[in-house]
Write a structure and sequence with these properties.
The complex is a heterodimer of chains A (229) and B (626). Chain A has 229 residues and is mainly α. Helices cover 62% and strands 5% of the residues of chain A. Chain A has ten helices and three strands. Chain A has a three-stranded antiparallel β-sheet with strand order 1-2-3, covered by helices on one side. Chain B is an alpha+beta fold and 626 residues long. Chain B folds into three domains: 228 residues, Orthogonal Bundle (GROEL, domain 1), CATH 1.10.560; 107 residues, TCP-1-like chaperonin intermediate domain (GROEL, domain 2, 2-Layer Sandwich); 133 residues, GroEL (3-Layer(bba) Sandwich). Chain B is elongated. In chain B, 38% of the residues are buried. The chains are: A mainly alpha (229), B alpha+beta (626). Strand 1 of chain A pairs parallel with strand 3 of chain B, so a sheet runs across the interface. Chain B: It comes from Neolamprologus brichardi (Fairy cichlid). Chain B: GO terms for molecular function: ATP binding; ATP-dependent protein folding chaperone.
Chain lengths: 229, 626
């Protein structure tokens, strides 16, 4: 019987504080939905036997035979607040998460690079997709705000990083070193510029974009440094 | 055409049930409690109905959701049995389901026999519900007897005339007080005193001296539609009792001119004029034997009339001057009756006729040619009565010692509007049902699992046999479990006391390992019960938890209410009204059964029968042929 059960399979742990908040928010939302639906029922709406496909709430039907879902059409969606494209707060929190995530695997990547040059390609390609995943930054990247050269410096930097990746075993030629140095300088200037802009910036969107720019500059610098090593 | 996806086994089931019950809870919550509001219903015809009755509100909703409909049906059935408690039913149901859901998601393991966590959850929930029901049927009445009943008191049935005095010193538990709190929650504060007084008067007239109180209550409850006459357009205070019975039809022939006593009446269930011919029959008129006269239809009809005259003459010899007919009589009968100075009332309803037969001690007759003296009832009078816009027939029965020793009376309920009349009439009927439940010796509704209840009702025997099966630490109660007429102070006290009793039971159960499940079950039920007092007192901002003093022998109750911001002021004998313990117990059992049946559902199969779909299928068929 599940009740008496085998506890070695699954140990129930009390929910953490974050989970409790989520549970509490969900319960409040359910209460709100129930109250709204109750009001509609008292107004003469019919409670159908079907549920909404999007959110799973029971559907109501008014006198004109029109179906109505209380949570989709009246309450704000539960998940909208987590969507960075619609919510600036979510975008900022996602940027922070990415930065945290970027810092932790970076030290683990460095020994990997030294170990296997063949896998360096995959490791090189890892920094590149990250800025695009951050939608807020991507949205910011599309606007003609802070220098439109934001994506290009990172991509040439990474492509420049990719290109010399293959012959990394062989001693690098001076021409390549020059290119790398130039790239480093360009990235550093951009980094400096972005930092200045960030200090004086008042808009949230701009700050987000600047942070992402700084992030990508830092990544490019790191990969450049690893190349020159 | 949208296709409905059948949800996989166990998936979304609990959420749907919870949501449906949560919506019903939100609907009735605003009307709950003594300070709850009323709901105004308007029909498309323009008729308006005001109600605070939970059953009325729930049955008026348009619900197509299967779980919601199931719940409303359970509520309706419970309400027609006990007359009260439909809103409390929904509240308890909702909180129980939530707690079961929480317990199931906590304790379910992804064991190998179930395909998903949801299915395991559903199975756990079902198991919990079954255990709760078994617990409720077996042990709940004992807990109530030991933990709740000592804090209440017993009403004696003869206390109709004891007026509830307003001074706080005397706290007589009487029927009127119980009724007053009932009408307060149902109809509002204005007329609760008056209504309870009126009901007590009615019941005192119908009190059979040598029978159990439940007998007269059952009679009044069964015949209530025939016993009350609604009259609209008058204030509520003009409601009154009148002696005898009011038949809700008018005279078809002119009423009796002479008011001589006694008036004899006969109840007819068939037509006086025998129907020899029905549609499709062929009447053959012709020569018969050696008769040379012509026969025509006139002869036939005059022969019919003469036979009818014979019947009427027979009735006259028996002295009958009132005919109460269940069917419509023909014009010939009407004419002959008028001629013979008999008054005829047609199309009387069946329950009125049965009440009449019961009160007069006669049986109705089908074929008047076989009438005898046992079919003839003796009345004190039979005259028309004008009530509001209608004229009815008022009959009074003659006292006779060999028959029943009561003075029957009817109730005239007045109210300004149609909606209010319905509200008051329903409230009165439910009040009588509630009283019946309070005094009725509890039926063995607890089926075969509970030997203890059966034994206690068969006599005053000790239920030691059933107890020896269970753990020995439980004490043996000497008295029967539920005393008839047991009441308790209203306002959530029953739930609070039972909550503590259950917690104690749970603690004592957790000592012995094999009763571990019992402990969790009683804990669950205890927590669910708290929701009712919470909802009652969430309206009142100033009064927070009640502290209850120990049991008092004479039924007095003193409660301490802590007021926020004040010092602990002792408000002794707070007049919260009374409520019946057995009704509450029935309510709990009904809720547990509803929970068990809701959670037993595995899958919901939608079956569509609307015309659009049929047409669609037909079109498809035609396309295929082409």
């Amino acid at each position: 019987m599940a009740l008496n059960g085998d506890e070695e399979d699954f140990k129930w742990e009390p929910p953490t504080e974050a989970e409790m908040k989520v549970i509490q928010a969900r319960r409040e939302r359910q209460d709100k939905i129930s109250k709204l639906m109750g009001d509609y029922l008292l107004k003469g709406y019919k409670m159908l036997g079907e549920a909404c496909e999007v959110c799973g709430t029971i559907l109501l039907q008014d006198k004109q035979q029109k179906n109505y879902c209380v949570s989709c059409q009246e309450l704000d969606s539960d998940i909208d607040k987590d969507n960075p494209a619609l919510n600036a707060q979510a975008a900022l929190s996602q940027v922070r998460e990415r930065q945290l995530a970027a810092q932790s695997p970076a030290p683990s990547q460095a020994p990997e690079l030294n170990d296997s040059p063949s896998s360096s390609q995959e490791n090189m390609s890892v920094p590149q997709p990250r800025p695009e995943h951050c939608e807020g930054a991507a949205a910011g990247g599309r606007t003609p705000l802070p220098p439109p050269a934001v994506p290009p410096p990172s991509t040439p930097a990474s492509t420049a990083a990719l290109a010399p990746a293959r012959p990394s075993v062989t001693p690098q030629s001076s021409a390549q070193r020059l290119v790398l140095q130039e790239a480093e300088e360009a990235v550093l200037t951009k980094l400096r510029w972005a930092t200045n802009q960030l200090q004086s910036s008042a808009s949230l969107e701009a700050s987000i974009q600047l942070c992402s720019l700084i992030n990508s500059c830092a990544n490019s610098l790191r990969s450049l440094k690893e190349l020159t090593q | 055409m949208k296709k409905d996806k059948m949800p996989p086994l166990g998936h979304l089931h609990m959420e749907h049930v919870l949501q449906a019950v949560g919506v019903l809870e939100a609907v009735i919550l605003r009307s709950f409690g003594p300070e709850g509001g009323q709901v105004l219903f308007t029909r498309d015809t323009g008729q308006v109905l005001l109600s605070r009755s939970g059953t009325r509100i729930l049955t008026a909703l348009h619900l197509e959701h299967p779980f919601a409909r199931m719940v409303v049906e359970c509520v309706w059935k419970h309400s027609s049995a006990t007359g009260d408690g439909s809103k409390t039913f929904i509240l308890l149901l909702a909180s129980l389901l939530r707690l079961i859901h929480a317990a199931a998601s906590k304790g379910s393991n992804v064991s190998h026999s179930y395909s998903s966590t949801k299915a395991a959850e559903a199975a756990t929930a079902r198991h919990l519900a079954d255990k709760l029901l078994a617990f409720g049927l077996k042990e709940l009445d004992e807990l109530i007897a030991t933990g709740v009943v000592p804090y209440g008191g017993c009403i004696s049935w003869e206390d109709f005339t004891v007026e509830a005095q307003t001074s706080s010193l005397t706290n007589n538990l009487c029927v009127q007080k119980l009724l007053r709190s009932f009408f307060h929650t149902r109809c509002g504060y204005t007329h609760c005193d008056f209504s309870s007084h009126l009901t007590c008067e009615l019941l005192s007239h119908w009190n059979f001296k040598n029978q159990l109180p439940s007998f007269s209550l059952q009679l009044v409850s069964d015949y209530f539609p025939a016993l009350h006459t609604p009259v609209s357009g008058f204030p509520v205070r003009s409601s009154r009792l009148i002696e005898g019975q009011v038949i809700h039809r008018d005279f078809a022939t002119p009423p009796l001119k002479t008011d001589h006593q006694p008036v004899k009446a006969v109840v007819l269930t068939g037509s006086l004029q025998p129907t020899l011919l029905s549609t499709g029959d062929v009447l053959e008129l012709g020569y018969r034997g050696r008769m040379k006269e012509e026969r025509s239809i006139l002869h036939f009809s005059s022969w019919m009339e003469s036979s009818l005259q014979g019947v009427i003459a027979k009735l006259q010899t028996l002295g009958v001057c009132v005919l109460l007919s269940a069917v419509k009589q023909s014009a010939a009968v009407l004419a002959l009756a008028t001629q013979a100075e008999m008054c005829l009332v047609e199309c009387v309803s069946e329950d009125e006729l049965s009440l009449f037969s019961q009160l007069s001690g006669t049986t109705p007759i089908w074929d008047c040619s076989m009438i005898e003296s046992e079919h003839v009832a003796t009345l004190a009078f039979c005259r028309p009565i004008q009530l509001g816009a209608h004229r009815y027939v008022h009959v009074a029965f003659q006292d006779s010692e060999d028959r029943i020793t009561i003075k029957p009376c009817s109730l005239i309920i007045c109210a300004p509007g149609e909606g209010q009349i319905e509200q008051y009439a329903c409230a009165l009927q439910d009040a009588i049902r509630m009283l019946l439940r309070t005094w009725e010796p509890m039926l063995a509704a607890a089926t075969t699992t509970s030997k203890s209840t059966l034994q206690s009702h068969k006599g005053a025997s000790l239920h030691t046999d059933s107890l020896t099966e269970q753990t020995p630490y439980r004490s043996i109660a000497i008295q029967p479990i539920q005393k008839p007429g047991c009441v308790l102070s209203a306002g959530g006290l029953f739930e609070l006391l039972l909550h503590y009793a259950l917690l104690q039971h749970g603690h004592s159960c957790s000592v012995s390992p094999d009763l571990n499940i019992d402990a969790s079950v009683s804990q669950l039920l205890a927590n669910a019960l708290l929701s009712v007092p919470q909802k009652i007192y969430s309206h009142k901002n100033t009064i927070s938890p009640i502290q209850v003093e120990g049991p008092l022998g004479d039924g007095k109750l003193s409660l301490h209410c802590c007021r926020e911001g004040d010092k602990l002021s002792k408000v002794s004998e707070l007049d919260l009204g009374l409520e019946s313990v057995s009704c509450k117990y029935q309510l709990l059992l009904a809720v547990l059964q509803c929970v068990a049946s809701l959670l037993k559902v595995d899958a919901v199969l939608p079956t569509h029968t609307d015309q659009e779909q049929i047409k669609c299928h037909e079109n498809k068929g035609i396309k295929m042929l082409l």
